[in-house]
Amino acid sequence: MLLTTTAAAALMLLQQAPAESTDWDAEFGVEVKERDAVTGELPVDPYTQSNANAGAKPYDGAVLAADFGGREGIARIAARTVDLSEADPRIADIFAANDMVRLKRTLGEQFCYLLGAGCEYTGRDMKTAHAEMGVTKADLNALVENLQIAMREAGVPFAAQNRLLSKLAPASKDIIER
Amino acid sequence: MFASCLLAVCQSVAALASPVDPAPAPQIAYARVIDAAPLPPASAPTHRAHQPVSTDASSLAGDGVRLGKVDLFDGGKLLLTNGVATVEGSSGGGIARWATIAGRQVPGGIGASAHATAIELPDFGWRSYGVAVGFGDRLELSLARIDFDTRDAGALLGIGEGYTINLDTFGAKLRVAGDVVYGEPWLPQIAIGIEHKRSRDGALMRALGAADAEGTDVTISATKLLLSRSLLVNTTLRYTAANELGLLGFGSANDGYKLQFEGSLGYQLSRRALIGAEYRSKPDNLGLGEDDWLDIFAAYALTDRLTLTAAYVELGSIATFSDQRGGFVSAQVAF
Ligand code: HEM
């Protein structure tokens, strides 16, 4: 018994170290995701695209969208929210582990769609997008604060800010996991 | 036969080869790979995983303390969603109880708040102060003291000039459903609770005609911030026998517990500012013409922790002194 163990140990120690250049991802069958050459986004698992994935019915009329600076303003606010969250020590880790290029686009689309500024939402539904992320209510509050900062910086009137939040708040049940 | 013999021989040889004294602890040869390898680059996703558990293992970068799995004073709540202290020490809007939970904690955390309130009326001076502890978004325990200075009215009432009536309130509130901000707009945050009140002037209360010097209010509250309108709506039903909240005792020879109503309507001007009005119905057990209360308030979160509230209050007739209207100021610190 002892003999075999020692022999096995000796064999293990004698074994050649794996080459420096070993492609561990390939060895273990890990798929490496390549960023799209044009959009710079990582691919995601297939899903059914639908505006219903945005999680709420949009407002109609252009008044509210104008408060947000139209489509361009909305896209800027979404991107700024993502940037702020990536830099926010409370929630940075959750964001850094994911594709922020895509999120800036899809979050912008979601806001734009919900505010009735005439976009289609092409992202996933809220439950799928946040699955297994372990988001807490504190994380959600932090994100809301960052969105509020982004909207305030963009000069969006407070009542209009709340109008957008009112479309997002019901999604909390699909986002908060803990 | 042969094979088994051979096996027996082998076994005996093996027995000879193995040491007589107890086998040494098994040794497993290993190369120190894990410890020797450098930690993964200090990128954000791995950062949290590598943090030692003993220090700030909270998901929030707050500045609280962590006790086991509980964050103490770590904050995380949206501004003003802890309400401001009522005159009875509960989280609410000044004179009406809300379904909100005191303290700045989020689920998994414990928070606390303390407040001091002054109301200046033509014939009376009101001072109240208290503390509250919040457990997650679930439970609130509160403790408050009202010192009601009767000033000159004390002499006219025959209890002595400047006589101060003291009332203690022990409150508990349990959130049973909903969320004040999140979730479906039609589902408010709903909380049930009690307020046990003890007058420290029992003899005086009975002399006034009150049946009791202590009583317990039972409340159910529903509170929602209707984001699409920036409106905060609250209603509370209170089953109570308290005369002037208990300052004049509880019930009377003929009257006891009745259902009363509290309502608040607020408009959110900014993250930090809320203005609104409140109404609170009250019984008239003593037949002194006790009136319902009204206020118009403005609450402002000066910092994340400090909230100031100012209000104009209409308290009607108190102990036969009519037209008690005046100013209400309150400061609350929350952790
Ligand atoms: C009401 C609040 C929220 C809304 C409306 C929202 C909206 C969205 C949207 C539209 C996407 C894109 C889905 C897609 O690209 O297919 C997304 C993804 C994401 N969200 Fe949220 N979100 C909310 C709360 C949060 C919170 C609180 C966190 C974390 C603190 C968070 C972290 C993320 C991350 C990391 C992704 C990227 C997922 C991936 O690329 O796989 N979100 N969210």
Task: Please outline what is shown here.
The complex is a heterodimer of chains A (178) and B (335). Chain A has helices at residues 2-14, 24-27, 63-67, 70-86, 92-96, 100-114, 126-129, 137-153, 158-168, 172-175. With 178 residues, chain A is mostly helical.
Q: How would you sum up this structure, described in words?
A:
The complex is a heterodimer of chains A (178) and B (335). Chain A has ten helices and no strands. Chain A has helices at 2-14, 24-27, 63-67, 70-86, 92-96, 100-114, 126-129, 137-153, 158-168, 172-175. Chain A is elongated. The termini of chain A are far apart. With 335 residues, chain B is mainly beta. Helix content of chain B is 11%, strand content 41%. Chain B has helices spanning 2-17, 44-50, 151-157, 202-207; strands at 65-67, 70-72, 84-85, 91-92, 109-120, 125-135, 139-149, 164-177, 189-199, 214-226, 231-240, 258-268, 273-280, 293-301, 306-314, 325-334. In chain B, strand 12 (258-268) and strand 13 (273-280) form a beta hairpin. Chain A binds chain B through residues 1-3, 5, 9-10, 12-13, 89-90, 92-93, 96-97, 136-142, 144-145, 148, 158-159, 162-163, 165-166, 169-170, 172-173, 176, 178, and chain B through 17-18, 23, 26-29, 31, 43-45, 47-48, 59-62, 76-78, 106-109, 137, 179, 181-185, 226-230, 268-271. Residues 91, 94-95, 98-99, 102-103, 106-107, 110, 123-124, 129-130, 135, 139-140, 143, 168, 171, 175 of chain A line the site of protoporphyrin IX containing FE.
